[in-house]
């Protein structure tokens, strides 16, 4: 690949992806709102750019083969906060990809696009959208946008519905964990699979208790290798008995399913201070 672009490169997950992605292309461009980022690879250029500005996206995607789109406001918030980076930003990325002849968008979607489904439902990649928040609603918009741009304009897309890519620190994560190594495996397969069309895949490790079914996305070749069961006993002893009537325990979206619209879901996840989830 000649040129690969990563949005959200200054974020936690983007930071994990920069090194492996730089090895997959001749020219690697990382972009975010930060003024600069450190430890650039030899073939990496950083460009400060705003997702909500179409001209910025047109410029940064010029000559790109693919874009890995991780840029977003990474939590539930009032709709006005989500609108610019997550909804308008998604349109700008796909429109800029189309105008520049970019072959594929690899998109960091989220379980929150289907977060109000019950955890007792073993949902597949064909589960209908059922967002739990404005944040999840924006993911639904981007997935539908990706589908339309494939159908109407031939831009391929892989929409990765990430569950919990953070250290296992709560009972929900024993089933929803996506290890950082499996994240890299997932993104790599989304890039190097020869033909994807429009594809949806869940971003989750090979957990014994994984609540979603990826069998419909086997064409992507994603085979996770890590398992959160190693953390189960300690986490469950600490958590105690959970209330099954609480939507945070009953729905795939976890706390995002129970918080009032516009209120932070991450605040209720009990994450480590240096490991705040972005997806």
Automatic annotation (TrEMBL):
Protein keywords: NAD, Oxidoreductase
InterPro entries the record matches: Epimerase_deHydtase, NAD(P)-bd_dom_sf
Domain NAD-dependent epimerase/dehydratase, residue spans: 5-162
Lineage: superkingdom: Bacteria
Signal peptide per UniProt: none
Molecular-function GO terms, alphabetical: oxidoreductase activity
Similarity-based family: Belongs to the NAD(P)-dependent epimerase/dehydratase family.
Name of the protein described by the UniProt record: Hopanoid-associated sugar epimerase
């Amino acid at each position: 690949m000649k040129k690969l672009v990563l949005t959200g490169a200054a974020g936690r997950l983007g930071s994990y992806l920069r090194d492996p992605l730089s090895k997959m292309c001749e020219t690697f461009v990382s972009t975010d709102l930060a003024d600069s980022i450190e430890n650039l690879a030899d073939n990496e250029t950083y460009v400060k750019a705003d997702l909500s500005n179409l001209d910025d996206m047109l410029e940064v995607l010029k000559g790109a083969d693919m874009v890995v789109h991780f840029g977003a406001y990474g939590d539930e918030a009032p709709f006005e906060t989500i609108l610019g980076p997550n909804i308008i930003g998604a349109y700008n990325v796909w429109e800029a990809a189309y105008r520049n002849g970019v072959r594929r968008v690899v998109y960091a979607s989220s379980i929150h696009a289907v977060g109000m489904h019950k955890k007792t439902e073993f949902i597949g990649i064909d589960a209908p959208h059922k967002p739990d928040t404005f944040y999840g609603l924006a993911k639904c918009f981007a997935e539908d946008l990706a589908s339309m741009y494939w159908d109407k304009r031939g831009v391929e897309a892989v929409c990765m519905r990430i569950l919990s890519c953070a250290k296992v620190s709560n009972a929900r994560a024993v089933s929803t964990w996506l290890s950082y190594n499996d994240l890299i495996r997932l993104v790599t397969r989304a890039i190097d699979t020869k033909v994807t069309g429009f594809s949806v895949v869940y971003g989750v490790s090979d957990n014994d208790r994984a609540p979603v079914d990826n069998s419909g996305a086997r064409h992507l070749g994603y085979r996770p290798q890590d398992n959160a069961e190693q953390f189960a006993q300690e986490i469950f002893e600490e958590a105690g008995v959970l209330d099954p009537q609480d939507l945070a325990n009953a729905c795939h979206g976890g706390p995002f399913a129970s918080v009032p619209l516009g209120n932070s879901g991450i605040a209720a996840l009990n994450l480590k201070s240096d490991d705040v989830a972005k997806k």
